[in-house]
Amino acid sequence: ISQYHKEFSYLLKDYAIIEGVAIEEKPGISPSAGRVLQVAAQIKKDSIDLVVATDDAPISTLEKLKEQSGVPYVILPRGFNTQRDLNNYERLYTEILNSMANNLTK
Q1: Does position 85 have pLDDT exceeding 90, yes or no?
Q2: 30 in Cβ contact with 5 (< 8 Å)
Q3: Which residues lie below 8 Å from residue 90, measured CB to CB, with a gap of 6+?
Q4: Mean pLDDT over residues 47-57, rounded?
Q5: CB 25 within 8 A of CB 57
């Protein structure tokens, strides 16, 4: 699994999920078109199955990456959200893991 921004590294590590290349080369700095091409090639090479991001990642960049790599992306919650009944870690992690599982390509 690759991430737009390395927000889920601890979760991936906790669940022994292999972490691929991050789309952002530097945290907080949007990737250039060249970086997106580079990441798409790396995703293909590494057989990455899914890209994860939060709602602040630019959809246009995620769509371009999907187009170039053939790998889907999913927008995940970044924290607690009482409107979605994500009010504790168990519910939050369940939502994140289920969303990832439901969007895997393989």
Answers
A1: no
A2: no
A3: none
A4: 94
A5: no
Residue 52 near residue 73, CB atoms below 8 Å: yes
What is the rounded average pLDDT of the residues 84-95? 86
Q: Concatenate the DSSP letters of all residues of 44-85 into one string.
A: HHTT---EEE-TTS-HHHHHHHHHHH---EEE---S-BGGGT
Instruction: Tell the burial category of 85 from Cβ atoms under 10 Å away from its Cβ (0-12, 13-18, 19+).
Output: exposed
Whether pTM > 0.90 for this model: the answer is no
- Tell me the two tokens of residue 86: 């994500």
Structure token digits, residue 69: 């790599």
With left for phi above 0 and alpha for psi between -120 and 50, is residue 81 left, alpha or beta? beta
